[in-house]
Amino acid sequence: MMKIARFTFNPIAENTYVVWDETDTPGPAGTLHEAAVIDAGNSSPAENRILDAFFAENGLRPVVAVNTHGHFDHAMGVGHLKQTYDIPFAASSADAFLLENAATSAGLFGMQVAELPPIDIDLADRDSISFGGITLQIIPTPGHTPGHVCLFEPVSRVLFTGDTLFADTIGRTDLPGGDYSWIMRSIIEQILPLGGDVQVFPGHGRDTTIGHEAANNPFITEVLDQQ
Ligand SMILES: [Zn+2]
């Protein structure tokens, strides 16, 4: 059974998720549960300490930082995780240009961001990523960014949608590499078929379900009404 903890970090109020299960994994620091950090947006020593304390209190060993996309507000905490836990950074190489331009992009939002780490595991080459007893399926959903992926856990039927799909809205497509027709195609063809019962945990704001969005999200109903 996958467990999920949400933290809302940095001035852009980005959702960082820690996911794990009860699988015991022995290691030098004792027997712990392997965890992944999805979209690490921790941006200050205080936010770093919140994450580090959560790992320690719950007996977690972070083993990968995995990203839905390369925007700085979703990746500015990866450096701390790599430094502290020596873990790989997984993201799509199609978003590498965004990671490389993070300082400039952050400046447009009035924020300062240190250089972001390079990608260690290219999600453009993979169908899934596993840790503990959990496998997250990689679902390409370009549109908000060219390399955006959603992460689907089929046992708990949970989908991490990053900035593709939010409760009652969708991600913006006016930033570099964004494309409105692609984000709508990704939502209609890749996300909706997963099923209405699937729980959606987005990169900003509250969680929702695919069923609620298919019936109420105005961007989706506009397209479905035309079909
Ligand atoms: Zn974004």
Account of the 3D structure:
Helix 7 packs across helix 8. The chain has a single domain (3-226), classed as Ribonuclease Z/Hydroxyacylglutathione hydrolase-like (Metallo-beta-lactamase, Chain A). It has eight helices and 14 strands. The protein is α/β, with parallel strands linked by helices and 227 residues long. The model has no long low-confidence stretch (mean pLDDT 96). The protein has helices at residues 45-57, 72-75, 78-85, 96-100, 102-108, 180-191, 210-216, 218-226; strands at 3-9, 14-25, 32-38, 60-66, 89-91, 121-122, 128-131, 134-140, 149-153, 158-162, 165-166, 169-170, 199-202, 208-209. A six-stranded mixed β-sheet has the order 1-2-3-4-5-6. Strands 7-8-9-10-13-14 form a six-stranded mixed β-sheet. Helix content is 29%, strand content 30%. The site of zinc ion has 4 residues, from loops.
Low-confidence stretches: none
Question: What compounds sit in this structure?
Answer: zinc ion
Radius of gyration over C-alpha positions, nearest whole angstrom: 17 Å
| Number of DSSP E strands | 14
Our count of helices gives 8
Q: How many domains is the backbone divided into?
A: 1
CATH superfamily: Ribonuclease Z/Hydroxyacylglutathione hydrolase-like
Structural class: alpha/beta
Strand content: 25-35%
CATH C-level class is Alpha Beta
- Helix content range: 25-40%
Separation, N- and C-terminal Cα atoms: 37 Å
Strand order of the largest sheet: 1-2-3-4-5-6
CATH topology: Metallo-beta-lactamase, Chain A
Listing every helix as H and every strand as E from the N terminus to the C terminus, the arrangement reads EEEHEHHEHHEEEEEEEHEEHH
On the 0-100 scale, what is the average pLDDT? 96
CATH architecture: 4-Layer Sandwich
What kind of sheet is the major sheet? 6 strands, mixed
Shape: globular
